[in-house]
Write a structure and sequence with these properties.
This protein has 174 residues and is mainly alpha-helical. The protein has a domain of 121 residues. 40% of the residues lie in helices and 5% in strands. The chain has 5 helices and 2 strands, in the order ββααααα. The protein has a two-stranded antiparallel ribbon with strand order 1-2. A hairpin with a 2-residue loop joins strand 1 and strand 2. The longest helix is centred in the C-terminal third of the chain and has 26 residues. The radius of gyration is 19 Å and the shape is globular. The two termini are 26 Å apart.
Length: 174
């Protein structure tokens, strides 16, 4: 839900949830996507531009380093239990200071689409929560580790939308 809540007559409901989709697309031998429109590899019902425009970011997995695991476990010593990590991330979700910090310090330009601005702000705030939850960072660190990745990953969504439907104009976010 865009606003996090809805009302139908006397009934009201709210939800705070995120969706992460993961999948594989066909790649060339040079480790680049075989087709220029990446979302065309999604199941047909998920290829609607109305849905895709609501995705905050697209993180191309082919840019991430591969984890090569033969017969060796990923952890050689202490590990981090998934339930503990889940609780830590859940606690970070309520750091609203990060949202306020982002809203005071960045201005999104290059778009008139409120979805672009919201996506960039929310993604930058998420990076801030994960990397600098104490809010002790320089303007350069904010730009490099939070804002630039948020803009870059949202730009992928915008570029793909433009290739899929001319209703979505081409422009450069900043």
């Amino acid at each position: 839900m865009e606003s996090g809540s809805y009302a139908r007559g006397p009934k009201k409901a709210s939800a705070r949830a995120s969706v992460v989709m993961q999948g594989n697309i066909q790649m060339t031998s040079a480790n680049q996507p075989l087709h220029p429109i990446w979302f065309r590899e999604l199941p047909r019902p998920l290829q609607e531009t109305a849905l895709i425009s609501r995705l905050h970011i697209f993180l191309p997995g082919w840019f991430l380093p591969k984890i090569n695991v033969s017969d060796v476990a990923l952890a050689q010593s202490y590990g981090l239990a998934a339930d503990y990590m889940s609780e830590a991330l859940h606690a970070l979700r309520n750091l609203y200071e990060c949202d306020r910090y982002i809203n005071r310090r960045i201005k999104v330009t290059g778009t008139e689409d409120i979805r672009d601005e919201k996506a960039i702000r929310k993604t930058a705030a998420a990076f801030l929560r994960l990397l600098f939850p104490h809010l002790n960072l320089t303007d350069e660190e904010l730009r490099r580790y939070c804002v630039e990745p948020a803009v870059r990953y949202r730009q992928y969504v915008r570029d793909q939308l433009h290739m899929m439907d001319e209703e979505f104009p081409a422009y450069k976010l900043s």
